[in-house]
Amino acid sequence: MPRERIPERGVLVLAYGHKRYRRQAHSLALSLQRHSPGLHRTLVTDDIRCAAAEAYDAVIEVEDGQTDDCRLKLSLDTFAPYARTLYLDADALAVRPIEPIFDLFDRSDVGVVGQDIPEDHPEPWYGDVAAMCRVAGTAWLPKCNSGLILLRSTEVTRQVFARARQLANQYEDLGLHPFRGGIADEPLLAIALAEQDLHSQDLTAVASATPIGISGVLRVDTLAGSCVFAKQGTEVQPALIHFAADYSSDYRLAGAHYRRERLALRLSQRMGLPDRAARLAAGLRFGLQCAVFNTWIRVAGRAPRDPSGIFVATASPPVEAVQ
Length: 323
Description:
Layout: E1 9-15, H1 19-35, E2 40-45, E3 58-61, H2 76-79, E4 84-88, E5 92-94, H3 101-104, E6 110-118, H4 129-136, E7 140-152, H5 155-168, H6 185-195, E8 208-209, E9 219-221, E10 226-231, E11 234-236, E12 240-242, H7 256-270, H8 275-300
Parallel strand pairs: 1-2, 1-4, 2-3, 8-12
Antiparallel strand pairs: 4-7, 5-12, 6-7, 9-10, 10-11
């Protein structure tokens, strides 16, 4: 029997540990089915029998008992099955076709969304920026959100992730801020990327954006294909909205829009309701919460419990990393 031909490009999603991540991966897949139905999808999970697995074209099993921090993300290069793999965090939703994102990045082996910051950056980022720059041997650092990463199947890509895994073993010695009781992947990737002269690319407004730092009302309609909000004073209209932190919560106010969009997708994509009916039902269930959330922002100028400054806490004094 001939082997299935692997497409040149596709999406990779991780969903392991707590069951909420598999639920999120399922909702993401439903949004991709709607807006990018021809784009191949691969799920990495510790439960290959979960409902989310049915919504993916391929499934890769990992051992149960993975840590709940970001350590597994440092092995994306070992899972990436395509020549060009677009990794997405499970708590994202597509609001329009995402195929154009592949062509937004330059020819970098690893593409990340964000902005480079100088070694004298006034605020810490998971720790002391100057210290991280010294480890990388650069005067800048590619500050990024690792909720979207474009990986090309190259030796440079493998070197970047291998170096990030090496740095993970020195996490405390580097003086980096803990995340979920463990490690954060972003500062480690940033150091490894800088060592390879790979820069962040400022694509937040059009590719993927998180509501963290939201400064205006959130308007999102996954079924209609629209998303617009002000992030730190700048209007963004991303193809993917990344509901990070409390913005994907099952019970906090900040997660109201995610819960509404998740329900609308399920009613439309899985149960076959007309879009109008699905939208109405989801609005009846979560519309008041969404209205309260937006009213809060209008009054306070920021979302409740927004974690914008969570990673600027003072970390332990760093030491030099092993090269």
